[in-house]
Amino acid sequence: MVNKNTNKDIVYFLFPSVIALSLTLSFSSYSANRFNPAFLADSPDAVTDLSYFEAGNRIKPGDYLLDIVFNHEYLRSENIHFISQDNHVIPCLNRDDYQSLGINIKLFADFEKFSANECIDIEKIIPDSVVNYDIEKQALNIQVPQAALDLKARGYIPPEKWDNGITAGILNYTFSGANSWGNSHNNSYYLNLRSGINIGAWRLRDYSTWNSSNGEKPMEPYQYLSATQYCVIKKPITNW
């Protein structure tokens, strides 16, 4: 009888222990990562806010000078503004920014839901797209499927990114002369002028020559040229 009662006591003792252990394992599996600031400084108040890193982010909101790498190809370096959105830190890139990368935003209607300057999380719009920050290389890596690209020739620059430059004048010249003495005295001079002016998209050019021999001084305009880039047909228009 004694052995019988002892076995029952063991059963009743182990059963609640197993339940408690199961609950502990269940709750611990859903616990979030937490960084203890005490490991970084004696005073937790001296440590910056770590909540962004606890959520799995590798960068805090702010401005950073980064290399832009699109589909494994370096494009340029520029300042990128990062914001917090839905507890995740994302680069603040708008529709024009993504279009300048070569993405055909017309294929995805969700782009139209955002205003011109609104930050867009592209991973929520383009399937299989990936945006990540490389902390070691200080690079912003953006990858999208080939089907999402607006295929252009390598080095293509959209017309809205063209820069007409400043208003300026141009003058190049070549001058030469010769004097000879003998039975007669001969003088000859030659002047070549290449001038022009840039105003907006217009490029005005003039090519003139001046030739003088023994006092004769005719000015001979050789060629006049005006040219501009016309964005609609995207080719030079030249008037001769």
TrEMBL record:
Topological relation to the membrane, as annotated: Multi-pass membrane protein
Keywords, alphabetical: Cell outer membrane, Fimbrium biogenesis, Membrane, Signal, Transmembrane, Transmembrane helix, Transport
GO terms of biological process kind: pilus assembly
Transmembrane segments: 12-30
Location of the protein in the cell: Cell outer membrane
A GO molecular-function annotation: fimbrial usher porin activity
GO cellular component: cell outer membrane
Domain PapC N-terminal residues, every copy: 35-176
InterPro entries hit by this protein: Fimb_usher, PapC_N, PapC_N_sf
Domain of life, per lineage: Bacteria
SUPFAM superfamilies reported for this sequence: FimD N-terminal domain-like (SSF141729)
Family: Belongs to the fimbrial export usher family.
Protein name: Outer membrane usher protein
Source species of the chain: Proteus mirabilis
